[in-house]
Amino acid sequence: MLLLFYFIPFSLFFSYLFLGMNASPEVLANTPLPRYNVKDGITVWTAEDCDELEKRCKANPSDKAAKDFKDFLFSTINILGAKSKRAQGIGAVLTSVSKLHEKFSSSEPVPQKLYILFYQNQGMGILKTGVKKLFISHPKTNTLVEVEPLAVLDFFVDDTYQRKGFGKQLFVKVLEEEGLMAHPERLAIDRPSEKFLQFLAKHYHLTQYTPQVNHFVVVLEFF
């Protein structure tokens, strides 16, 4: 079931997994992504899903397959989150197993969702969403308005697989899941990179937005 890292001994593989929950972002960003016999495609994970997997492993300690998958999944999430931080040049990790458990407020109606793209037995990309209460400047009236859009909180595809359509697959999956295929403009985006803005312009012709103090981008068509 469990395949090893290229050129990494079995014992060292598991030391990476155990280290992964507490290692620094710099260490994780340079850690090879683990491999596992998982189907190609995109799966969606929440904090509750991770907790259920953890409970299953604790309730059935002899279930090696469940434990191996949990170790693979949690390590993949933490490593891709650290790689995303490094690629974006930001000060803090946006995605990790622990970050999925954080809430913006006690009344947050929708949990954060993490979309993970698996390809050739590895996690290759992530896109995290959550509902965010924002005060933004209306482009027409220049007044602050309160909105609660679904927001893209993190978006990353491993360097090896960029510009191969994987980012588009992740984004489309989010639109499908949230019923926004016809309305990508309804998404807010937290601190989008220049690559992300180019992506929106190329695939969805979304180019106009008003810079916000909170660094979220809400395109003109949102209004």
From TrEMBL:
GO cellular-component terms in the record?
microtubule
- UniProt keyword Transcription regulation present: no
The protein's matches in CDD domains, at most eight in alphabetical order, are given as: NAT_SF (cd04301)
Pfam families in the record: Acetyltransf_16
| Alphabetized GO MF terms | tubulin N-acetyltransferase activity
Does the record bear Protease in its keywords?
no
InterPro entries recorded for this chain?
Atat, GNAT_ATAT
Record domain N-acetyltransferase: where = 36-223
Keywords, in A-Z order: Acyltransferase, Signal, Transferase
State the signal peptide span: 1-29
Any coiled-coil ranges, and where? none
The molecule here is called: GNAT acetyltransferase, Mec-17, putative
Species, as recorded: Angomonas deanei
